[in-house]
């Protein structure tokens, strides 16, 4: 497989590489150099960051008001009548 380095040092990943790494637009890649070779890996998103992003996109104001900001305590009280499991 080959690709060409453009004037701004950009390259296009060959389709076989994109498929093998399951790269999508916006994904991040990590490069590692070792004895004249370059290793390319896809950087997997941090699950906590993904959860924060999903939560930030939703409006949980009503849930916060109903639970007083502590959903776990609220569920425990509803289930067991107090804050203990």
Could you outline the blueprint of secondary structure elements for this entry?
Blueprint (H helix, E strand, L loop, with lengths): L14 H7 L6 E7 L2 E7 L3 H10 L4 H7 L3 H10 L5
Antiparallel strand pairs: 1-2
Summarize this structure as a short list of keywords or feature phrases.
85 residues; alpha+beta; Pemi-like Protein 1, Chain: D; 2 domains; two-stranded antiparallel ribbon; 2 strands; 40% helix; 16% strand; elongated
Describe the model.
The protein is α+β, with helices and mostly antiparallel strands and 85 residues long. The protein folds into two domains: 1-44, Pemi-like Protein 1, Chain: D (Ribbon), CATH 2.10.260.10; 47-80, no CATH class. Helices cover 40% and strands 16% of the residues. It contains four helices and two strands, in the order αββααα. A two-stranded antiparallel ribbon has the order 1-2. The protein starts with 14 loop residues before the first helix and ends in a 5-residue tail after the last helix. 0% of the residues are buried.
């Amino acid at each position: 497989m080959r690709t060409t380095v453009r004037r701004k040092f950009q390259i296009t990943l060959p389709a076989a590489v994109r498929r093998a790494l399951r790269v999508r637009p916006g994904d991040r890649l990590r490069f590692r150099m070792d004895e004249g070779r370059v290793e390319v890996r896809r950087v997997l998103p941090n699950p906590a960051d993904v959860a924060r992003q999903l939560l930030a996109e939703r409006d949980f104001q009503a849930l916060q008001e109903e639970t007083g900001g502590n959903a776990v305590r609220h569920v425990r009280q509803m289930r067991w009548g107090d804050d203990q499991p």
